Amino acid sequence: MRSDAAPRTSPRSHDRLRFVFFASIIPLFLGGSAAPTPLYPHYRDAWGFSPITITVIFAVYAIVVLVTLLFLGALSDRIGRKPVLLVSALLQIVAMILFATAGGVGALIAARVVQGISAGAATGAAGAALLDVDRERGTVANAVAPTLGTALGGIVSGLMVAYLPAPSVLVYVVFGFVFVLQTIGLALVDETSTPRAPFTLASLRPSFVVPEAARAPLLRALPAIVAAWSVPGFFGSLGPLLVRHIVGTSSPLPTSLSGGLALFVMAGSATVGVLASRTRPSHLAMQAGALALAIGAAMIWLSIVATSATIFFVGCVIAGLGFGATFQGAVRSIVMVAKEHERAGVLSVLYVVAYLALGVPAVLGGIGAVYGGGLVLTGEVFTLLVAALAALAFVGSLRRPVTHLGASPNP
Predict the structure, then answer these.
(1) Which has the closest alpha carbon to 261: 100, 150, 386?
(2) Taking the CA atoms of the chain, what radius of gyration do you get in angstroms?
(3) HEC secondary structure over the chain
(4) Domains in the chain, please, with CATH?
(5) For residue range 159-213, what is the model confidence (pLDDT) as tens digits?
(6) What is the distance between the alpha carbons of residues 163 and 150, in angstroms, rounded to a whole number?
(7) How far apart (Å, rounded) are the C-alpha atoms in residues 141 and 27?
(8) Looking at CB atoms within 10 Å, which of 9, 207, 280, 298 has the fewest?
(9) Distance (Å, whole) CA 172 – CA 96
(10) More confident site: 156 or 196
(11) Residue 301 to residues 64, 233, 288, 297: CA-CA distances in angstroms?
């Protein structure tokens, strides 16, 4: 037998396997985060709470993610990606157990807190691990992952709630099993970065640092990011109730599936938008995305006014395409100028902005639905505001001189 036989797995194949594994983390984590959305009408009917309560449950998750990003977002730049991701996966399992056994609003909020800590810690670490393995493909994967995960969670949960028994348990059992498998994989996978320091309490100090090279691209992308992420924030909380109003009794689909389908259509279209614009210069991707987002939001407004399910879903598709192109361009323009030891921190800052845009409109929407004229009026005002903000982002991007920092995968 030859002693110099080639290894069973080549280095390139090994890197591909690692890339696929790390690329699965954010979609599945965010899929688990989207899983409760089609269940909100079920919880509301069972426990009798108001739309404000729904938005509070949703917003708690966004707030906890924000706080976690501030304290732990750059932790993997110091101690390595693997330990942060391993603990995050364990917390996801705990969150699924809390969801599956929830008997009231308090338990849902507790599950969202645990889930928010897990997602906040993992977002920067998993995204940075992808960049460590393959910088060019990792940039695209970082933009695809949130929308792909949201689409996955929305449709899987919607189908289970509509057609399978124990709707408030089974979906969490399925995701919990997936997270157990991910935990095992994380225990076996190789580290992708070189730890710079051991874990200490000082590692938990809040960090909100953007390297100088990334500041200008981040400022240019802010209006478009806010407009884009406010849409899934609103529809991830009050979307199923709004879909119930638009679709009414004319749809053959159960209400829970209609709500999950709306989230799936929007997030799935966003994934297509990411892939379709990945070879375009980042500033052009953001311009096209902002324009599509403005048109899509305007169509969703029209669908609410006209009570048209067809216009609504077409608007979701166009808005989703805009979201994907906008966020892909923003990620590419920002992270491609960051060094290895800055990547998780830069991604964390980017997601802080995104989750602020995700959570604040959801809370304001809940308040408006109860105290500001009802769900329908709130939906109309919100979609008009998003359309206006996206239009301003588009016009601003045309007027502002742009340095093509994100146009090349290897600046």
Answers:
(1) 150
(2) 21
(3) CCCCCCCCCCHHHHHHHHHHHHHHHHHHHHHHHHCCHHHHHHHHHHHCCCHHHHHHHHHHHHHHHHHHHHHHCCHHHHHCHHHHHHHHHHHHHHHHHHHHCCCCHHHHHHHHHHHHHHHHHHHHHHHHHHHHHCHHHHHHHHHHHHHHHHHHHHHHHHHHHHHCCCHHHHHHHHHHHHHHHHHHHHHHCCCCCCCCCCCCHHHHCCCCCCCHHHHHHHHHHHHHHHHHHHHHHHHHHCHHHHHHHHHCCCCCCCHHHHHHHHHHHHHHHHHHHHHHCCCCCHHHHHHHHHHHHHHHHHHHHHHHHHCCHHHHHHHHHHHHHHHHHHHHHHHHHHHCCCCHHHHHHHHHHHHHHHHHHHHHHHHHHHHHHHHCCCHHHHHHHHHHHHHHHHHHHHHHHHHCCCCCCCCCCCC
(4) 15-193+210-399 (1.20.1250.20)
(5) 887 788 887 899 999 999 999 999 999 988 888 877 766 666 655 666 666 777 7
(6) 20
(7) 10
(8) 9
(9) 5
(10) 156
(11) 30, 16, 20, 6
Copy the structure tokens of residue 207.
């960090």
Q: Which distant-in-sequence residues (6+ apart) come within 8 Å of 55 by Cβ?
A: 237, 238, 362, 363, 365, 366, 367, 369
